[in-house]
Amino acid sequence: MSFSVIGKDTPKRDGAEKVTGHTQFLHDLTLPRLAHGAILRTRHPHARVRCIDTSAAEALPGVVAVITADRVEQHPFGFAKDHWALKGGAADGGKVRCIRDEIAAVAALTEEIAQEAVRLIRVEYEELPAVFDPAAALRPGAPLVHDERGSNLVNLRYQFAHGDVEAAFARADVVVEGEYRLNYVTTACLGTMVAIAAWSPPESPDASLTMWSTTQVPFLYQRDLAEALGITGDRIRVMQPPVGGNFGRGLDLYPIDIITALLARRAGRPVKIAFERIEEFIASPTREPCVIHLRTAADRDGRLLARDARVVIDNGAYVSWGSTTPYVMLSTTAGLYRVPAVRFDTTIVYTNNPYSGSMRGYGNLESTFAIEAQMDDLAERLGLDRVEIRRRNATRSGDVNPQGSIITSCAMTECLDAVEREMGKSAGEAPRPGWRRGVGYAAMFHVGGGARVYRSDGCGAILKLDDFGKVSLLTGASEIGQGSETVLAMIVAETLGVPLDRVDVVNSDTAVKPWDVGAHASRTTFIAGNAARLAAEKIRAQLLALASESLEEPSSRLTIAEGWISVVGEPQRRLSYDRVARAGHYRTAGQTLVAEAFYDPPTEMLDKDLRGNVSATYGFAAQAVLLDVEEATGRIVVRRVASAHDVGRALNPLAAEGQVHGGIHMGLGYALSEKLVVEQGQVLTQTFMDYAVFKAGDMPEIVVRLIESIDAEGPFGAKGLGESGVIPVAAAVRNAIKDAIGVRFDELPMTAERVRASILARAAGVLE
Question: What share of the chain is helix, strand, coil (3-state, %, to 5)?
Fold first, then answer.
């Protein structure tokens, strides 16, 4: 099948404005009479607030509002409704529970005055015993993070069992077992967290609120913010300016959003709060730290028999969407390769550490790291080739995995073959003297057609064609830098048969755009793309019906291509599509060309036993990493990464490859350098001098192979891709280091210091 737009390398629509500095991010936005806000946070990870004195702050010239928990009306929010925006009031027991906790907030005429006012606020604390380790938090008599709950065990448990796990382990020819420790990392977005709130009219008790936000889920945000403020959702309008990074950070409602709205209400004028960098490292959400205990059983041919996983998650002080990552950890445990028997259990524990949030890959990186480590261990124990053991267990089209995921299109084996071929091209190359070379492999399984974690996984689209030929797509989808505006415009242009530059995308205002559940789970191309395609098909049918009268041919004999409606087989008989659209306005019964569509995939939510087909299709990938390790220092240089992805169909190959490159960069940081150091509840890595984002100069050669399996349900056969680049990287790096120096690493990051210590320990006979 040939396409005019689909499958062509197409630059991102917002690319030129971003690289030339013309994009107006939320940080750049200003409003008339805008005040600037600042937040006072606790110094203690666990304490009772005895007294808050704001008098000096209120007396400072230029201060327009000061609020504390007991001066405003607020309501609990968050996944478990265990969180208050301002702490230390009567409603939340007068306590602070982690060093992020917000005690007071100030609005002032300038940022400098607001920061000075915050420094003038005096708080008297009674320090309380704290817990910073999940095991310690579960011991009898441990200090309670939430006194009213009676336990530090979070009331979320993900337990799953399929098949006879114990019998499978009993008859196995080989069993491998390990414990894997994954630490805090943060999104490190260049754009820090920021919000602007404005009430209109500000003095009215029934005022409406406009929020400018970096949220990824504007309609869920609208509802949750309304509940936290005690108003109805129809009084809130959400605007989404361009964002300077999110990577999952925008899935939750946060105290900054609520506090900004409360300050604006008290000040009677718009208020902006923007984190500075240290505050971003302390207060923005992280990937959750966890420990995974995993056992894997296989027969003598390397075919998997069973997996048994136990996961302990440090929840921090409050439950967020990050605490639901075991949904995806389980999906990977049950779905990465064919495994007939699976057992999975979790323990999620309150501590006085910072709470986590959602982050790209959403639990899959953690499970994949453990599973792929054990695939290499099994191959070694059985004397099998590391790629061959993966081929023997590869998922295939038509499979239904233990959790009930129905596998439609699948090119997992082709992905493995592709990265193996790429690594073969480097065979025979010798490392420098004093260096040892290794190659590592890992695969990936992830949702590729939405993920029904909410009652609806749908997205709406409204398409309008004006009499100048301009096509406007109003989509529920959110553009967060991933290029959704570009690919949705491509889908509409291809479906309608019009030039791509004639399609505009409108997506930043909840007062205008239709409903969507949000940008997560690599769903936008698949879900929003299908909605856009359905709406475009309706406009196409309307255009052909109008043209059929002028051309005196039935619609079935007409086609649209490159903006021309012509008779099939008689290309000289044609009309421009915009002329046909204009003609519709002047008919006896005038017609405007507007269509709407809503696409909700044919999926189901997980049942109480955590079974169900949550995605309309699934994505697969394989990665191979070639790296060198310097024996004297432990320094690691990644030379080459091959990354093959089952994308269904690559609608925009340029953007797809860019997504993979970005994911690999994030994955290399996770593997080798990044760690948010949290000790005794305090965040010690508070700047980019301390938090080691993987450097651009250290990036390796990257080879991306896009494998097309053409999914029947996807728009033009496409699947979601946004997270797959990051998921297998750390596992492949770990396996490459093991191949190079013979040492297994079961904790991230694998820094030069840790690698050197392991080399010395192995040389001394301390480490096998």
Answer: 30, 25, 45
User: Which residues 6+ apart lie within 8 Å of 324 measured at CB?
Assistant: 79, 156, 453
* CA 374 vs CA 13, 132, 175, 368, 614: distances in Å: 43, 29, 9, 10, 27
Q: Torsion over CA of 311, 316, 321 and 326, rounded to 10 degrees?
A: 0
Tallying the residues shown for the chain, one arrives at 768
Give the CA diameter of the chain. 92
Q: Determine the Cα–Cα distance for residues 454 and 217; give it in Å rounded to an integer.
A: 12
Rounded-to-integer distance, Cα 518 and Cα 250, Å: 10
Write the CA distances from 324 to 21, 132, 327, 410, 560, integer angstroms: 37, 20, 6, 27, 46
d(CA 743, CA 756): 11
| Mean pLDDT across 704-729 | 97
Q: 364-382 vs 729-741: helix axis angle to the nearest 10?
A: 30
Spatial CA neighbour of 363 closest among 409, 328, 411, 398: 328
Q: Which residue in the block uniquely carries the two structure tokens 């949030």?
A: 357
Q: 123: which 2 tokens?
A: 């708080």
Alpha carbons 122 and 53: distance in angstroms, whole number: 5
> In 3D, which of 305, 228, 241 has the Cα closest to residue 23?
241
Give yes or no for residue 589 having a pLDDT over 80.
Answer: no
SS3 at position 473: strand
706 phi and psi angles, rounded to 5 deg: -100, 110
What are 287-332's pLDDT values in tens digits? Answer: 999 999 999 999 999 999 999 999 999 999 999 988 899 999 999 9
Given this model, what pLDDT does residue 507 score? 96
Q: Is 406 left (phi over 0), alpha (psi -120 to 50) or beta?
A: beta
In this predicted model, what pLDDT tens digit does every residue of 90-138 receive, in sequence order?
999 999 999 999 999 999 999 999 999 999 999 999 999 999 999 999 9
CA atoms of 68 and 104, how far apart (whole Å): 5
Q: What contacts 140, CB < 8 A, 6 or more positions away?
A: none
Beta strands in 485-632 (DSSP E): 503-506, 558-561, 564-567, 570-576, 593-599, 618-630
The answer to whether residue 585 scores a pLDDT higher than 90 is no
Residue 728 preceded by cis peptide, ω within 30: no
Residue burial 124-155, b: 16+ Cβ < 10 Å; e: rest: ebeebebbbebeebbeeebebbbeeeeebbbe
Distance of CA 595 to the CA centre of its chain: 31
CA 280 to chain centre: 18
Q: How far apart are CA 230 and CA 209, in angstroms?
A: 12
User: What does the pLDDT look like over 253-282, one tens digit per residue?
Assistant: 999 999 999 999 999 999 999 999 999 999
CA distance 758 to 745: 9
d(CA 492, CA 499): 10
> What is the radius of gyration, based on Cα positions, of the chain?
27
Cα(600)–Cα(470) distance, integer angstroms:
27
User: What span, in angstroms and rounded, lies between the C-alpha atoms of 180 and 670?
Assistant: 14
462 in Cβ contact with 759 (< 8 Å): no
DSSP string spanning 200-211? ESTT-TT-EEEE
Residue 588's beta-bridge partner residues? none
| Distant-in-sequence contacts of 378-382, Cβ < 8 A, 24+ apart | 378/174, 378/176, 378/296, 378/298, 378/302, 379/302, 381/174, 381/176, 382/173, 382/174, 382/298, 382/300, 382/302
Give the closest residue to 253 by CA, choosing from 280, 229, 287.
Answer: 229
Report which secondary-structure segment, H or E, holds 644: strand 636-646
Q: Which of 188, 445, 425, 210 is nearest to 332 (CA)?
A: 445
